[in-house]
Amino acid sequence: MGVLNVYRASVLALSLAFPLAAAMADTPASNSQFGIRTLSTHPDRVSGGDVLVEISYPNANSKFPLVVTLNGRDVSAAFRAGEKPNTLLGLVTGLALGKNTLAVEGRGWGMPARSLELTNYSIKGPIVSGPYQQPFICQTQNFNLPAGLGTLGAPLDADCSVATRVDYLYISTAGGGFRQLPSTTVLPADVAMTKTRAGVTVPFVVRLETGTMDRGIYQNAVLHDPTKEPAPSPFSPPKGWNKGLIAIHGAGCPGGWYIQGAAEGVNPLTGINTTRLGEGWALFINTLQHPSNSCNPFLAGEAAMMGKEHFIETFGVPAYTISLGGSGGAYTTLDIGDAFPGLFDGAIPTSTFPDAFSIANSALDGHLLTHYFAVTNPTGFSDPQKVAVSGYKGIQAWIDAANQAQRTDPVPGRVDIAGYGSAVWSSAVPAALRYNPATNPSGARPTVFDASRNIYGVDPRTGFALRPWDNVGVQYGLGALNSGAITVKQFLDLNQDIGGYDNDANYVPRRTAGDPGAIKRAYQAGMTLYGGGGLATIPVLDGGNYNDTGGYHYAWYHFAVRERMRQANGNADNHVMWRGPSQGEANWAAMVRWVEAVKADHSNATQSEKVRRNKPADTVDGCWDTSTTPPSFIAEPTTFSSQPDSRCNTLYPSFAFPRYVAGGPLVANILKCQLKPVDFGDYAVPFTSAEMDRLMSIFAGGVCDWSKPGVNQTAGVPWASFGPSPDNLVFDVTE
Question: Are 444 and 258 in contact (CB under 8 A)?
Fold first, then answer.
């Protein structure tokens, strides 16, 4: 059985063990019983004490009204006729923390009562992300509201809470950005009008809600005229809302630990978001969806899950939700979309990475190479040979990639040989709380691993997060050797002395073995993007935007996303890649047409099939030629190549990375390789007897067998939990 079939077999096993969102605990109606389902979130993951519920019944019975109870308390008054025939819709409030029972009874209907268990969690969280990260610095007093409205003020408690507030802002006919609405009873004379995608013309007045949720600061924004419309609710949504919802995310990662965040990274009221609001879209975000505040995509997923739930309970169910983001926002979009199936209906990543770990993984390889070439063997390789071993386009691209290892280095004050400083911190975190191996060994550690310690696990001896990074058996420079770019001696020297890291990112002579449990949980949680969860059933449009010359936003990451989707699902037909500078409006228009076509397909086809067959004819792979005004689109199949073998590859050649040169796959999701004995048939150059012996000694335990799945490589677990929710619980770090 080949690597793809082995991997997909494990996918099937887990999909049976952990059903997707559609198969959760809602109770459907039949000809002889009532149905109850939650619309705002899963019944086992309610937050904040309220939930939007739909009750269905086979036939109306006007003589005997239905009775709905919550924990024995009559809540029937919360329900009214739903939009669909034979349904009731109700916003159920007053849930107790923990388990609750919602029941429906039709006295005189001749049908048994039905009930649904609801598990309610605090609006402060956590639900599935595990114990709170500590320390955690509140920043409500630094969070600036728009239009000169000031800050949110000091937090009300140790969990960084503030009172929820609603502000109204408007666009003036005089132009400029949003202004504070002076009154919620009378509109100002200079208010501009806007026409939504639904063809409705309304005052350009936006309701902006700001509060705290999951210890982050959240906002949602949508057109709403408080002078003429009732307060928004699921029964009276804003007139200007076009029923579309946009999840927006920040960017970055280094420095994204132990802080609430004083900004969201993307302002919902500026730039293109102003245009989207004027078209009738609603937007939502949380500071924990900004990786520069919290470089933990699973926690971002929890915040997004809670944020969308709250939006639905405030305004109603959207027709669809599209997520978009660039750089760190790209992997936030992808990782949440995959690990939390059904949360998003479409994804537009730009400046794409599969996940934060993929950046760190490649950076750590590159960083080892910088150390080897600069310290261990400073005269053994020419610059072209170094580039050949790295796989990147040039020296600068390799160094920029290597510098991203700073997100794995907890030691302050260290300046790398490539010139970057380690241990990146937000200035909001007091120096006294920060890790220092000499003066504060129990302090907070600023790494992608420690930021997600609930997933990776903790070493009980040190209190440090366990690490999945591994380079045992990796043959650095194998492709360069086989191409003739380096000699056998250089290859042997490099692999003998490349070394590894300890948990403080110090160089050590031995190679690094990743923790098996941390590796497995990285896959299960989607910390290493899987691609076969939610991404299997939604349109994904990679909007491009990369530079292989430097800056570490490289083309291969985009290809890796596609290959992961292909590996997990057998195809990547729902993934479209547009290379070149991102064309924001073109990306957006194509995604909206695609998602709306899928939603309009009411056939019995599978969701994956609907996505494939409803892809617009002009939404195909290609690239943008920016030599024309406006840029022109070249439609052609996308291939990974640095050679001018197509029009798009001529304009936008794609270069590799160290593990690709070491024989690894483009999918780049094997964290720890299975080993095989050295096979001299794998080498295109001859070895002397002494060189053979030396190679066998260097790799006494074997070399990477890239044809097999990685050690502990498994499918992602949809809607996984790391506590306190017991449903789909993968790992509890407190045990």
Answer: yes
